[in-house]
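re: that chain from earlier
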Amino acid sequence: MILLYVKRILMVTAAAASCYGLADWLGPPAAATIWTIATAAGCALGAALLRTSEVGRVTWRNHAAGCLIPWGWRLNRGRLWVAAAVSWVAWVTIGAAVFVLRAKSADDSTALRVGLFAAWAVDAAALLFVLGTIRQATPGSRVGSLGRVSVFLALILAVSVGLHAGGLTAAAVAVGAGPPAVIGSGLILFALLMVTVGRNARWN
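^ sequence. v structure.
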């Protein structure tokens, strides 16, 4: 699982660097057009590779398709085109975030913009995970709390993007990264307690 997360981080980083380089080379409008078309073709290729792969056997086709269509599998319910469409939207969103953050304001540092991109990526990944969990829930399951979590994550993203658009990048980073940092710290602390003193504790 850790290797999967590392792979996803490397893929997002490579995609962001590619978009930034394209924007420097061709300008944002042309780069956005090329990125949108290229990622659509890549997702279509990934779907074609999976359709022609042998059932029950993992080959290079599966590994290549996993790189081209890495997202949306928790939402597709067995439909390949849904995973391909979600992955395409994710690739385009990564590019859009890079193009938006590339337009540097007077008070924006590179570190600040990189931090904001990372915060948006974490928030979006969490939102996609929660939506996938809701999608996979069986009929009658209690997912109301997850629905509220998804609304909260979407609100965080919207407010953070709005603050950056208004020139308040530092505030956008605080809003985008603050709640995930607090929740993540709590989960890490709980895991440490379970590993150390919690192993011999009675929880009943």
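The chain has two domains: 1-103, 108-204.
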